[in-house]
Amino acid sequence: MVTPDQIIIELQKISWFRELKPEHLQKIAAISHLRRVAANEVLFREGDSEDNLYIVIEGRIALNIFVPHRGKVRIYTAEPLDVFGWSSVTPIIHQRTAGATAVMDSLVIAIHAEKLRQACDEDHDLGYVVMRRLANIVASRLLVTRLQLLDMFANPESQNVK
Questions:
Q1: For the segment 4-19, what is each residue's pLDDT rounded down to a tens digit?
Q2: How far is CA 118 from CA 122, 144, 158, in A?
Q3: Thinking of the domain 33-155, which architecture would CATH place it in?
Q4: N or C: fewer beta carbons within 10 Å in the chain?
Q5: What is the sign, positive or negative, of the torsion defined by CA atoms of 93, 86, 34, 14?
Protein backbone atom coordinates (compact mmCIF):
# COMPACT_ATOMS: atom_id res chain seq x y z
CA MET A 1 0.00 0.00 0.00
CA VAL A 2 1.24 3.46 -0.89
CA THR A 3 1.54 5.87 2.04
CA PRO A 4 0.70 9.59 2.01
CA ASP A 5 4.45 10.27 2.44
CA GLN A 6 5.15 8.42 -0.82
CA ILE A 7 2.46 10.46 -2.55
CA ILE A 8 4.00 13.67 -1.16
CA ILE A 9 7.34 12.65 -2.72
CA GLU A 10 5.60 12.26 -6.09
CA LEU A 11 3.68 15.53 -5.69
CA GLN A 12 6.89 17.44 -4.89
CA LYS A 13 8.25 16.48 -8.33
CA ILE A 14 5.44 18.43 -9.98
CA SER A 15 5.94 22.15 -10.49
CA TRP A 16 2.18 22.59 -10.02
CA PHE A 17 2.67 21.86 -6.29
CA ARG A 18 6.02 23.51 -5.58
CA GLU A 19 4.68 26.65 -3.93
CA LEU A 20 2.33 24.77 -1.64
CA LYS A 21 2.99 24.76 2.07
CA PRO A 22 3.87 21.38 3.63
CA GLU A 23 0.46 21.21 5.32
CA HIS A 24 -1.24 21.73 1.95
CA LEU A 25 0.79 18.90 0.43
CA GLN A 26 -0.25 16.70 3.33
CA LYS A 27 -3.93 17.57 2.79
CA ILE A 28 -3.69 16.72 -0.91
CA ALA A 29 -1.74 13.51 -0.28
CA ALA A 30 -4.38 12.39 2.22
CA ILE A 31 -7.08 12.55 -0.49
CA SER A 32 -4.93 10.99 -3.24
CA HIS A 33 -3.88 7.56 -4.38
CA LEU A 34 -1.54 6.15 -7.01
CA ARG A 35 -3.17 4.21 -9.83
CA ARG A 36 -1.50 1.96 -12.38
CA VAL A 37 -3.21 2.07 -15.75
CA ALA A 38 -2.64 -0.52 -18.49
CA ALA A 39 -2.17 0.47 -22.12
CA ASN A 40 -5.56 1.09 -23.80
CA GLU A 41 -7.35 1.17 -20.43
CA VAL A 42 -10.09 3.81 -20.28
CA LEU A 43 -9.88 6.04 -17.20
CA PHE A 44 -13.09 7.87 -18.05
CA ARG A 45 -15.36 8.68 -20.98
CA GLU A 46 -16.58 12.01 -22.30
CA GLY A 47 -19.72 12.96 -20.38
CA ASP A 48 -18.91 10.84 -17.31
CA SER A 49 -19.20 12.47 -13.92
CA GLU A 50 -15.90 11.14 -12.59
CA ASP A 51 -14.66 12.41 -9.25
CA ASN A 52 -10.87 12.52 -9.67
CA LEU A 53 -8.29 14.97 -10.89
CA TYR A 54 -5.29 13.11 -12.34
CA ILE A 55 -1.58 13.77 -12.73
CA VAL A 56 0.60 11.61 -14.96
CA ILE A 57 3.67 10.27 -13.15
CA GLU A 58 4.78 7.80 -15.85
CA GLY A 59 3.42 7.05 -19.31
CA ARG A 60 0.97 8.91 -21.52
CA ILE A 61 -2.78 9.44 -21.44
CA ALA A 62 -4.75 10.39 -24.58
CA LEU A 63 -7.62 12.85 -24.19
CA ASN A 64 -10.27 12.35 -26.86
CA ILE A 65 -13.52 14.01 -27.83
CA PHE A 66 -16.24 12.83 -30.16
CA VAL A 67 -16.58 15.03 -33.25
CA PRO A 68 -19.67 14.46 -35.44
CA HIS A 69 -18.75 13.05 -38.87
CA ARG A 70 -15.19 12.42 -37.66
CA GLY A 71 -15.56 10.12 -34.68
CA LYS A 72 -13.14 10.07 -31.77
CA VAL A 73 -10.43 12.72 -32.14
CA ARG A 74 -7.40 13.02 -29.87
CA ILE A 75 -7.16 16.59 -28.62
CA TYR A 76 -4.27 16.21 -26.21
CA THR A 77 -1.76 13.70 -24.92
CA ALA A 78 -0.96 14.12 -21.24
CA GLU A 79 2.68 13.33 -20.53
CA PRO A 80 4.53 12.94 -17.22
CA LEU A 81 3.69 15.75 -14.77
CA ASP A 82 0.65 16.86 -16.84
CA VAL A 83 -2.68 17.36 -15.05
CA PHE A 84 -5.90 16.10 -16.63
CA GLY A 85 -9.48 15.58 -15.55
CA TRP A 86 -9.63 19.16 -14.30
CA SER A 87 -13.35 19.52 -15.01
CA SER A 88 -14.07 17.32 -11.96
CA VAL A 89 -12.73 20.11 -9.71
CA THR A 90 -14.84 22.94 -11.12
CA PRO A 91 -17.45 24.21 -8.66
CA ILE A 92 -20.59 23.47 -10.71
CA ILE A 93 -19.90 21.37 -13.80
CA HIS A 94 -18.49 17.95 -12.93
CA GLN A 95 -19.07 16.35 -16.31
CA ARG A 96 -16.03 15.17 -18.27
CA THR A 97 -15.30 17.32 -21.31
CA ALA A 98 -13.22 14.55 -22.92
CA GLY A 99 -12.43 10.88 -22.52
CA ALA A 100 -9.08 9.58 -21.23
CA THR A 101 -7.34 6.40 -22.36
CA ALA A 102 -3.84 5.20 -21.53
CA VAL A 103 -1.59 5.24 -24.59
CA MET A 104 0.88 2.98 -22.77
CA ASP A 105 1.23 1.46 -19.32
CA SER A 106 1.07 4.46 -17.01
CA LEU A 107 1.12 5.57 -13.40
CA VAL A 108 -1.10 8.44 -12.30
CA ILE A 109 -1.96 10.21 -9.08
CA ALA A 110 -5.72 10.40 -8.59
CA ILE A 111 -6.88 13.24 -6.34
CA HIS A 112 -10.45 13.02 -5.04
CA ALA A 113 -12.05 16.10 -6.60
CA GLU A 114 -14.89 16.69 -4.13
CA LYS A 115 -12.50 16.50 -1.20
CA LEU A 116 -10.08 18.83 -3.01
CA ARG A 117 -12.90 21.36 -3.58
CA GLN A 118 -13.83 21.10 0.10
CA ALA A 119 -10.18 21.62 1.17
CA CYS A 120 -9.98 24.67 -1.10
CA ASP A 121 -13.19 26.10 0.40
CA GLU A 122 -11.90 25.56 3.93
CA ASP A 123 -8.40 26.93 3.26
CA HIS A 124 -8.48 29.87 0.86
CA ASP A 125 -4.68 29.99 0.55
CA LEU A 126 -4.75 26.44 -0.79
CA GLY A 127 -7.82 27.22 -2.88
CA TYR A 128 -6.18 30.23 -4.49
CA VAL A 129 -3.14 28.25 -5.61
CA VAL A 130 -5.17 25.28 -6.85
CA MET A 131 -7.71 27.37 -8.75
CA ARG A 132 -5.02 29.60 -10.25
CA ARG A 133 -3.20 26.49 -11.49
CA LEU A 134 -6.43 25.02 -12.87
CA ALA A 135 -7.20 28.27 -14.69
CA ASN A 136 -3.80 28.07 -16.39
CA ILE A 137 -4.45 24.47 -17.43
CA VAL A 138 -7.90 25.31 -18.80
CA ALA A 139 -6.53 28.30 -20.74
CA SER A 140 -3.68 26.29 -22.25
CA ARG A 141 -5.99 23.41 -23.23
CA LEU A 142 -8.43 25.84 -24.84
CA LEU A 143 -5.58 27.33 -26.87
CA VAL A 144 -4.36 23.91 -27.99
CA THR A 145 -7.91 22.83 -28.87
CA ARG A 146 -8.55 26.06 -30.77
CA LEU A 147 -5.41 25.57 -32.85
CA GLN A 148 -6.39 21.97 -33.58
CA LEU A 149 -9.87 23.04 -34.66
CA LEU A 150 -8.44 25.72 -36.94
CA ASP A 151 -6.16 23.11 -38.49
CA MET A 152 -9.05 20.64 -38.78
CA PHE A 153 -11.18 23.11 -40.70
CA ALA A 154 -8.27 24.30 -42.85
CA ASN A 155 -7.24 20.72 -43.74
CA PRO A 156 -10.36 18.54 -43.43
CA GLU A 157 -8.92 15.68 -45.50
CA SER A 158 -5.88 15.26 -43.24
CA GLN A 159 -7.85 14.34 -40.12
CA ASN A 160 -7.90 10.72 -39.02
CA VAL A 161 -11.03 9.22 -37.52
CA LYS A 162 -10.22 6.89 -34.65
A1: 888 988 888 888 787 7
A2: 6, 30, 44
A3: Sandwich (2.60)
A4: N
A5: negative
